[in-house]
Amino acid sequence: MFLLIFGICICTLIIIGWKFILSSQRIDQQQDISNIVEQSHNLTLSVDDAIRHDVDDDEIQSSSTKITCDSNDNNVVRSILEFLPDEILLDIISFLKPYDIYHSLYNLNNRFNSIINDFQLSLHLDISHISKYEFNYCLSSILPLPSVLLRLHSLHISNDETYGAIALFIRQYPCLNIPSLRSLSLTDATISQIKFLFQKLSIKLEHISIVTNRTIDMNDKRLLCQLLLKHKTLRSCRLSLCDGVDCDETILNNSINNQLENIIIDLSYFQNILTLLSYIPNVKQLTININQQKYYNQDYDAAAFDIFRLCIPTQLTYFNLNLRFSNVEFEHIEQLLNCLVNLKHLCCSSFRVELVDGYRWAQVLERLPLLRRFECVMTTYIYHSLDLNLISQSFQTLFWKEKHWSVVCDYFQYLSRLIIYTIPFYKNLFTSTLNGSQSLNEFNDRNVLPSNAYDKVTHLKVSVQGLHSDSIPARKFRFVTSLSLCDGESYSDHSNSSLLSYLTSTIDLTKIRHLKLYSLLSGHTLFSLLCKAPNINCLSSSYHNLLQMINDFGDVWLCWLLNMMIKKLTLSYGRLTLSIVDQFIELFSNIEHLSLCMNMDDIDFQEILLKLLQNLTHLSSIRISLAGKLTDHFQSQTFTWLSTNQQLYSEFNDNFLDIWIT
Predict the structure, then answer these.
(1) What digits encode the pLDDT tens for the residues 306-345?
(2) Which tops the pLDDT comparison, 147 or 470?
(3) Are the beta carbons of 497 and 521 closer than 8 angstroms?
(4) Using an 8 Å Cβ cutoff, are 247 and 267 in contact?
(5) N or C: which end of the chain has fewer CB within 10 A?
(6) Would you tell me the crossing angle of helices 556-565 and 523-532 to the nearest 10 degrees?
(7) Any bridge partners for residue 658, and if so which?
(8) What would the mean pLDDT of 256-268 be, rounded to a whole number?
């Protein structure tokens, strides 16, 4: 008992002593803080005195750099930002978006208002891929300001994920005039919207970009092309329409007086190139995408090239020809290039086996005396017997070595595909397989491929067929942000290890933002991949594959990881049903953009859609691919039902129902 009492006393003394030590340290800290506050107060007074003294001596010459401090108001706390000169603040603000400028700084004080309204500050308004709240703020609080319209140099509006944005813009500003506008970009607009905005805003335009996948009548395409070619102030334009434009000789009947220097355009047929070139005499850079498999809409006339020689655009130095689906013959490309004798930079991509001939390319390129740079990507499927070594050797002759144009020949056996391309690779999409490719070059990869060989590749498409071997040199793709896995299954532990081994040795998984799954992976494989690529926030997959990978919502850890990471989800080939919609909502409760398929004849259509809209609280937009025949009755009924919610804007686009949510 005595020992117990003695122990308690000792512990009590230790606790009292420890509290005394802590209290003394706290007193010292408070004294230090008081000293710091006093020093900072003295420093503030000295700064005020110095500023007052400088003002009295007229040492501050420019009113734009004056700093006004109210020393009598000791409660005002000023940020370091306010002590910067106006010129520096103007430079900083010029890097901000108009929404951030006006939402955060406008009406903060008179000084910031003066800086924001300075005519040296050019505004570039991009109201694409933003929330509906930000969009409404830009339309209601920024565009009405006269000082904005006089300094607005570029405008970008989009219907992609901001569904109906262009229609809302036109509805609110049907007579808008922006005298300072020099650049206009429209994405996924209808032909009526394009015509309206071009008519209203194109007076002094120097650049225009029109990109849309909507179905447009060929006559409307020709009319749009005609408007662009007749415009007198345009310097550059991009026209990317579904299936391209049939730009024939009837598109314009009078002389051309445009100033177009840089053009990117999708054409329907190869022969359209000759007609287009005769309408753009001042062009310097030209990119043409041919979309149709049929390369002539009429019988081929070789004399057309002889006529074309009389109206060659002599300033054309850069030519990029992408034959996406065209069956154009080599002799036609050869005749075209023989006319463009002033080229300095030539790019060409195709899927024609006839174009995979290094000897013939050397003959064509030798006739271009000013050519300094040649880039190509030629892909072909090997369906019959070809001497692959002979093809490779045709690109390794003395001509190619003297020009210092390194050409790589890769044969992907699992895909029966041959790809021939120059280094550095100039496209943003590269296709590969797990087991790599058989290099047909005589040299070693390590000796020919520089570290930046694939730096322009941002989208890597990988076939998961076969197994990865560490003995095969892996290509290094340092800046890939989108990864597609396709053609096969990776369902065993061995294939899981092979896939992850290939990806970790090929790309920086931490940079991946978008994962596209066109193959069936095991849940373990997908979980491991997501753990190694923690910045993935977009997922595209087929509906049934996703259900199988998450084991019909039974894989708890994978479902938890998907819920935490995925903000944008695109599902194809399958329809969401009422029986699992609650589980689906719980799994993807954090998504902001959703695209999926539904059957408009389903009696539960409205109930499923209502559950999605009410319970996915972070949802900003939803696109529904409608299966079945779209009727006027269904559209009217759906519009009536959705119009009861003021926070929704909905529209039908072909067989899609698009909804934008505030």
Answers:
(1) 666 667 788 999 999 998 766 788 888 998 998 899 999 9
(2) 147
(3) no
(4) yes
(5) N
(6) 40
(7) 623, 651
(8) 90
pLDDT band at 45 (very low <50, low <70, confident <90, very high): very low
Helical packing angle, 493-506 and 523-532, nearest 10°? 20
For residue 400, give both structure tokens: 């190619």
Please choose, from the candidates 190, 153, 149, the residue with its C-alpha nearest in 3D space to the C-alpha of residue 173: 149
Radius of gyration of the chain (CA): 32
3-class secondary structure for 66-98? CCCCCCCCCCCCCCHHHHCCHHHHHHHHCCCCH
- CB contact at 8 A, 635 and 652: yes
Give the pLDDT of residue 57: 41
Over the chain, what is the mean pLDDT? 82
Per-residue pLDDT reduced to its tens digit, 51-87: 334 434 443 333 333 334 343 445 556 677 778 899 9
For the chain, what percentages of helix, strand and coil (3-state, to nearest 5) are there?
A: 40, 20, 40
DSSP assignment of 492-554 equals SHHHHHHHHHHHHHHB-GGG--EEEE-SEEPHHHHHHHHHH-TT--EEEEEHHHHHHHTTTTT
Amino acid (1-letter code) at residue 134: E
Degrees, nearest 5: CA angle 628-631-636: 125
In sequence order, the β-bridge partners of residue 262 are 236, 285
- Domain coordinates in residue numbering, the chain: 386-536, 558-662
Closest CA to 256 of 237, 282, 235: 282
Decide the pairing of beta strands 183-187 and 152-158.
parallel
Cβ-contact 49, 67 below 8 angstroms: no
CATH number of 558-662: 3.30.110
Q: What residue type is assigned to position 275 of the chain?
A: T
**Phi, psi dihedrals of residue 208, rounded to the nearest 5°:** -140, 140
**CA dist., res. 237 & res. 245, Å (int):** 14
CA distance 514 to 7: 65
CB-based burial, 185-204: b 16+ in 10 Å, e otherwise? bbbbbbbebbeebbebbbee
**What are the tokens at 271?**
């022969």
Question: Among candidates 394, 374, 392, 396, which has minimal Cα distance to 382?
Answer: 392
Q: And the tokens for 412? A: 């992907």
Q: DSSP strand E in 97-171: where?
A: 123-126, 152-158
Question: Is 37 a residue whose pLDDT tops 80?
Answer: no
Backbone dihedral angles phi then psi of residue 212, each to the nearest 5 degrees: -150, 145
